[in-house]
Design goal:
heterodimer; A: Serine Threonine Protein Phosphatase 5, Tetratricopeptide repeat; Methylamine Dehydrogenase, Chain H; 3 domains; 4-stranded antiparallel sheet; 26 helices; 31 strands; 24% strand; B: Histone, subunit A; Serine Threonine Protein Phosphatase 5, Tetratricopeptide repeat; 4% strand; TAF6-like RNA polymerase II, p300/CBP-associated factor (PCAF)-associated factor (chain B); ARM-type_fold (chain B); TAF_TATA-bd_Histone-like_dom (chain B)
């Protein structure tokens, strides 16, 4: 358990979390550095200085690089001569070598590649501080540095030729066989972006503009948002601190291309001696080559759209234990003795050896389930057991939903919410509803006739009889009973709220950068968790309580425990804001959706990213796990809902129908129906069971990750339900499968 | 700062329509000007660089502020969002505080300067104000079952009478007075629909509408439309109250129709195309056979109230089709049908009155010597209608101006209307046809009808001549009616004999329906008057001979009616009417067991006191 110091985490410690073994180590550092909204010194040093250093220092760097190269090849005489001629001090090279070894001695040599080392190199070169002699091992690590530094110059070709290069490639790709064309067309967008950025970076503003004008129309429409950002960027000075740009520079755009297509491209570029493009492909693109048939256009389109291309295949290879945990064995009173049962609820010690059918079902161990104690979970309290009993009783009365049997929908309308409703949550038993508002308040309502009461003050508590049976009732202050309570504490809009499973706590996260834990017994704030220094977009309790996850503008998601004021894990890897976070039903995984248009699944135990799902064409705003834990549904601003198979790491289905951002998704309790709610004022019901049943994953698909989606949205759509000019913000299935929707009336 | 704000707005605006104009630009002149106002002298080059940088920064901020909007689950970008974006990028917010509502931009007189109006507020006045505005209502959650088992039940959730909130103080008081006066203490009676069981209440509402309409100090503006729609509701809808035959919803409908014409004459100019809308909806009701008879009655009465032009345009061409339906009802003597039949007679009477008025007015307009002279001798009104339309049916009281306005509506809006192809029918032809429907009773009313003493008798005299010519060769319909006889009747004949009717009912329809009528009688069927099924796919059967027992209804049962008929025995002999398909089935005037007084009463109510 590598507990990380929250708040101002310095880079080294963050690397220790090892969020991802390879390239994500790089992203990790950039995620912290990349608080680009504020011009912090670190951000300028890590990414900017390599390039922004101009004139003499640049020459010096080149010299250093050459020297290093010579020395590595044991050309000591040449080294001496060059050094003398350049007038460099003798220790210059040694110093550099020593500092380059620093990251490797930190144990993350694999995690730091090209750019970071390059920045270190340059920093050292400029400041030329004294250091210790370099270990020989460092030399091997320096290989990429050299290429980075040198390639930085080699790419500065004739700006006028960029257009020619690009259109030449375009002509070539358009002329190849159909089966290859779709695959090779993927190259266009990243190439376009990098060529444009190079032009801008090298101060060829007018050429850059012309280049953009000419070719931006060719790009896929789902890159429109990114292109808009790019088009506003025409000056080198502006490149510093631009988030989208940093994403492009620091992460490699991932393409999946079949071997044949790749060979074709490679041959063409070599024939044409088109080094410019080849260099970009080498440096900024990661081409994931697979053997077999090239993919079709629709296959590619289904998976592309994210900020940094598709996920690498090996990123989704890790085993995920998606099964559910074994339910604890709870003695359930007989159902036919309802009155008795209610009496027993007061004193659960009286046990009967009768098992409920639901309880016995989950007894057998699911082969896909994680070990029961993989993640330490809080022990069940008596009240939790009572709640479980209630749950089981309710679930026996559950309506079995399906294609023929659609749920009734109740709409909870927030009236007079002039201040702006931003988040809604229901308790699992649907007894409480809470709303987060843009005026920084959180309001809790009781949906049942039972009013909300506070616990008595300490002085009054001293007076009550602690031995009495109804002590829990006695501690409540009747005078405070009301239908709703307002919780004050945040200083910015509340973007996410979540009830704890035991209904004693409420979490809220806000633009002010904090997550707050509220007690629903005293209706006061218990803890303010500070760690995200930027707006926190979403938070959610674990289904077992105790843990919770939050994600925000700082591009990381954090795992917390309620009794720790610092996060237990930091999940870094997203290239843009983490917009929504959800716990897996077995509490062993966390899924995050981001504005980089990817979804990542994180292992709570190791902190690793175990799945990356690409395919959305807009920021993801909602996620939902199916009750059996096998599937995931995601909704984005593009109005589409995508279904994912977690075990295989594949997209299962694409549900088209909404015309605006999908803000709410929820599976029915038995997983038969998926409900989606959107800004377009509709709730739509989808036949999830059919979507999952139709799924036949053969080994080939599983191995290659090539999916064939048939467009069956209309078949799966079971109903569209209009609200009265009320955007649907939240959806919830009661334990008996009644669908509750919530939103604020927009006058 | 106004400059800054306007450029922000222009920027966000351009983000939407990026295709046309790429980005908003802050010109170097603006930058130089700003610098000057801050006391700094800038070089040309410097200003250009700065201007470009400012543009970029603005774009960047505009882009980053949209995420605050998205996460607040809004569609509208607010000033607050922008301020947040600025704050998070360590820039001092310059936009001040934002309001929820959009701030309208105003343009300056000179140049392309746009600014948000920033009124000066008198703080003293505000501080000493006695009418402190109430705080906005408390945020609350209301739940309703929107859909049951995934079906239906669409009720508005959270219906707030928002229209009320936008009223000014005086109007608000007025509103409160009115609502209190009408609704009493019951706050739930906000909609007409909720009181459709209570005739009292509806009557009161209608009176309220009347007083609203007649209030010369109230500018109704766009509310006319909603007033009209609620009045139309009273006219047309099968109110819950009409289930009980004892309720006199007929008078309500009459009154509402009156009111409708009243609104229309006085406020018709406020809403363009109102006339056509009303006509359209009336026509729709009339042509919908599923609607109950009381709705049809309402439609007829409404048309009548709108003037004889409306009757001529809508009711008259529609009559042949409608007649068959009405006939079916009137011919049904089963006990279960008694109530429906009574309603049918009501409709019959209404149509009769409307049609008579139409004929009279038409004759009047024809014969009016001074104002519009035309070749009356030909008997064709076609030309006359064309150029004398403005004042064709002006009720004496109504302002001629209003009439003009309406007539122009009529002309202007007629494009694309279903009765566009309607061609004016000559008066005699019209009379002929109407006579074929109504038989003697038409003529009776025509000659002795009340309210039209002034017109000389000439129209009917004038009328009769061409009629005689036209009908001279026909056999005596009276004999045909009085004796039960078997008439072999080629169904398509109406079309063949060159009848002026524009729209004869499809031939097969009639044969179908006569059989279904008997079927209906056998099974003793339902109250709903014209089940749709009867009209399904009538076309494909080949037109054929159908045997109709003509004059069957003249059996013993109808004895009671004869005196009624003979009392008003016609001076003009309707001798020359050829045996018509519909004429046979006519029940003459069927008001069995109903006092004559009531008839006249409702007859009067149909008359327009305009």
């Amino acid at each position: 358990m590598a507990a990380v110091q929250g708040g101002m985490v310095d880079e080294k410690e963050e690397v220790d979390i090892k969020t991802e073994p390879q390239s994500d180590g790089l992203m990790n550092t950039n995620a912290t550095d990349g608080r680009q909204l504020s011009p912090s010194p670190s951000s300028s040093s890590s990414a900017g200085s390599t390039k922004s250093a101009a004139g003499a220092p640049e020459d010096q760097q080149t010299l250093l690089a050459v020297l290093q190269f010579l020395r590595k090849n044991k050309l000591t005489e040449s080294v001496e001569i060059l050094r003398r001629e350049a007038g460099l001090p003798e220790d210059a090279l040694d110093t550099k070598g020593a500092d380059c070894s620093a990251p490797s001695s930190g144990g993350t040599a694999g995690g730091v590649d090209g750019l970071d080392a390059g920045s270190l190199l340059s920093r050292v070169a400029v400041s030329s501080s004294a250091g210790t002699p370099a270990p020989t091992k460092a030399v091997a690590d320096d290989q990429p540095d050299v290429s980075v530094v040198l390639s930085a110059y080699s790419q500065q070709g004739d700006p006028a030729l960029y257009k020619v290069y690009y259109s030449d490639l375009k002509k070539f790709i358009e002329s190849v066989l159909d089966c290859h064309r779709a695959e090779l067309s993927q190259v266009f967008y990243p190439l376009f972006v990098h060529m444009y950025l190079e032009l801008v970076y090298n101060n060829h503003e007018s050429e850059a503009k012309a280049f953009f004008e000419k070719f931006s129309g060719d790009q896929e429409c789902y890159y429109e948002d990114d292109l808009r950002v790019l088009s506003s960027l025409t000056k080198k000075e502006h490149m510093r601190g631009n988030e989208t740009l940093l994403d492009f520079r620091t992460s490699k755009f991932v393409l999946r291309i079949s071997r044949d297509s790749y060979q074709l491209l490679k041959r063409h570029l070599q024939e044409r001696q088109n080094n410019q493009i080849w260099n970009i492909i080498q440096e900024h693109l990661y081409i994931d080559i697979f053997d077999g048939m090239p993919r079709s256009k629709s296959q590619i389109d289904a998976m592309s759209g994210s900020l940094a291309g598709e996920a690498k295949r090996e990123a989704n290879k890790a085993k995920v234990y998606y099964g559910l945990l074994k339910e604890p064995e709870i003695e359930v009173p007989l159902d036919d003795e309802d009155e008795e049962a209610e009496n027993e609820e007061g004193k659960p010690k009286k046990k009967k050896p009768k098992k409920d059918s639901m309880g016995s079902k989950s007894k057998k161990q699911d082969p896909n389930a994680p070990l029961q104690n993989r993640i330490p979970l809080p022990e069940l309290k008596d009240s939790d057991k009572l709640d479980k009993i209630m749950y089981m009783k309710e679930s026996t009365k559950r309506i079995r939903l399906g294609r023929e049997n659609l749920p009734s929908i109740c709409f909870y309308t927030f009236l007079n919410a002039y201040q702006g409703l931003t988040a809604v949550d229901f308790t699992d038993d649907s007894s409480l509803i809470a709303g987060g508002f843009a005026d920084s308040t959180v309001r809790v309502w009781s949906v049942t006739p039972k009013k909300l009461r506070k616990v008595k003050s300490a002085a009054d508590l001293n007076l009550i009889d602690k031995e009495s049976d109804d002590v829990l009732e006695r501690i409540m202050d009747e005078k405070t009973a009301s239908e709703s309570k307002i919780l004050y504490g945040h200083s910015g809009p509340v973007y996410g709220i979540s009830f704890s499973p035991d209904r004693n706590y409420l979490l809220s996260c806000s633009e002010d950068g904090t997550v707050r834990l509220w007690s629903l017994l005293t209706f006061t704030c218990l803890v303010g968790y500070k760690g995200h220094n930027y707006p926190v977009w979403d938070t959610q309790f674990s289904p077992y309580g105790y843990y919770f996850v939050s994600g925000g503008h700082d591009r990381v998601a954090r795992l917390w425990a309620t009794d720790h004021y610092q996060p237990l894990r930091i999940f870094a890897g997203h290239l843009a804001d983490v917009t929504c976070t959800r716990f897996h039903p077995n509490s062993n995984y966390v899924v995050t959706g981001s504005s980089d248009r990817t979804i990542r699944l994180w292992d709570v135990l190791t902190g690793n990213c175990v799945r990356i799902f690409t395919g959305h064409k807009g920021p993801i705003h909602t996620l939902a796990f199916s009750p059996n834990g096998k599937f995931l549904a995601s909704g984005a601003t593009d109005g589409r809902v995508l279904l994912w198979d977690i075990g295989h790491g594949l997209m299962v289905s694409e549900l088209k129908g909404h015309t605006d951002t999908v803000y709410a998704l929820r599976f029915s309790r038995d997983g038969e129906i998926l409900a989606s709610g959107s800004m377009d004022n509709t709730v739509r019901l989808w036949d999830a069971a059919k979507a999952f049943d139709d799924l036949e994953t053969d080994d080939f698909t599983a191995a290659t990750g090539h999916i064939h989606l048939q467009d069956n949205s209309q078949e799966l759509l079971l109903g569209t339900y209009m609200s009265k000019s009320t955007p649907v913000v939240h959806l919830h299935f009661t334990r008996r499968n009644l669908l509750l929707a919530a939103g604020s009336y927009a006058a | 700062m106004g400059f800054g704000v306007s450029s922000f707005a222009a920027l966000t605006a351009t983000m939407a329509e990026r295709e046309e104009r790429r980005f908003a630009q802050v010109s170097r002149e603006s930058v130089a000007l700003m610098a000057e106002s801050a006391g700094v002298e800038l070089g040309e080059e410097m200003a250009a660089v700065l201007a470009e940088d400012v543009c970029y920064r603005l774009r960047e901020a505009a882009q980053s502020c949209s995420q605050f909007m998205k996460h607040a689950k809004r569609k509208k970008l607010t000033v607050e969002d922008f301020n947040r974006a600025l704050r998070w990028s360590n820039v001092e917010a310059v936009c001040g505080y934002g309001a929820q509502d959009a701030l309208p931009f105003r343009s300056g007189k000179e140049g392309e300067l746009f600014f948000v109006e920033d009124r000066e507020i008198n703080l003293i006045e505000l501080a000493l104000a006695t009418n402190i505005p109430k705080g906005c209502a408390e945020t609350m959650v209301r739940v309703n079952v929107a859909y049951l088992d995934g079906k239906g039940g669409v009720e508005l959730q959270g219906a707030v009478p928002t229209a009320v909130q936008s009223l000014s103080d005086d109007l608000l008081k007025y509103y409160q007075q009115i609502t209190r006066a009408i609704l009493g203490d019951d706050p739930h009676l906000m909609k007409v629909k909720s009181v459709s069981h209570d005739l009292e209440q509806l009557n009161r509402l209608l009176h309220m509408v009347r007083s609203l309409v007649q209030n010369p100090y109230l500018y109704l503006g766009s509310y006319v439309r909603s007033l009209v729609s609620s009045v139309m509701y009273c006219i047309l809808e099968p109110l819950a109250a009409s289930i009980n035959p004892l309720n006199d919803h007929w008078t309500l409908r009459d009154y509402a129709a009156l009111l409708l014409s009243n609104i229309f004459w006085t406020h018709g100019d406020l809403v363009s195309g109102l006339y056509h809308q009303i006509l359209l909806s009336l026509q729709k009701v009339l042509s919908d056979p599923v609607r109950p008879l009381c709705s049809h009655y309402g439609a007829v009465v409404g048309l009548h109230a709108l003037g004889w032009k409306a009757v001529e345009k809508v009711l008259f061409p529609h009559l042949p089709a409608y007649w068959a339906n009405l006939q079916a009802v009137l011919d049904d003597y089963s006990v279960s049908n008694a109530q429906v039949k009574a309603d049918g007679h009501k409709v019959y009477g209404a149509i009769l009155v409307a049609v008579e008025r139409l004929l009279k007015m038409k004759a009047l307009s024809l014969s009016h010597p001074g104002e519009w002279c035309f070749n009356a001798q030909t008997g064709s009104l076609a030309a006359a209608v064309g150029y004398s339309s403005p004042g064709l049916s002006p009720p004496p009281e109504s302002l001629s101006e209003a009439a003009f306005g309406i007539a122009s509506h009529l002309q202007a809006g007629s494009g694309g209307c279903p009765w566009e192809e309607w061609a004016p029918v000559s008066l005699p032809a019209m009379y002929l046809e109407l006579y074929s429907f109504f038989g003697d009773s038409l003529a009776v009313r025509f000659s002795t009808g009340p309210g039209l003493d002034s017109p000389p008798y000439c129209p009917s005299a004038l009328l009769r001549e061409p009629k005689k010519e036209a009908l001279g060769q026909g056999s005596n319909s009276d004999t045909a009616r009085k004796m039960p006889q078997l008439t072999a009747n080629l169904s398509i004949s109406p079309r063949r004999d060159g009848s002026p009717r524009t729209d004869p009912p499809p031939p097969s329809l009639r044969s179908r329906y006569s059989s279904s009528r008997s079927a209906q009688r056998l099974t003793g069927l339902p109250r709903d008057v014209f089940p749709k099924a009867r009209f399904a796919s009538p076309q494909n059967g080949p037109p054929s001979f159908s045997f109709v027992i003509g004059g069957r209804q003249m059996g013993q049962r109808c004895q009671g009616r004869r005196p009624f008929q003979t009392v008003f025995a016609p001076t003009p002999p309707p001798a020359a009417v050829p045996p018509r398909a519909y004429a046979h089935k006519l029940p003459v005037i069927g008001r069995v067991g109903k006092p004559v007084r009531r008839w006249t009463c409702s007859h009067y109510s149909l008359l327009l006191p305009l």
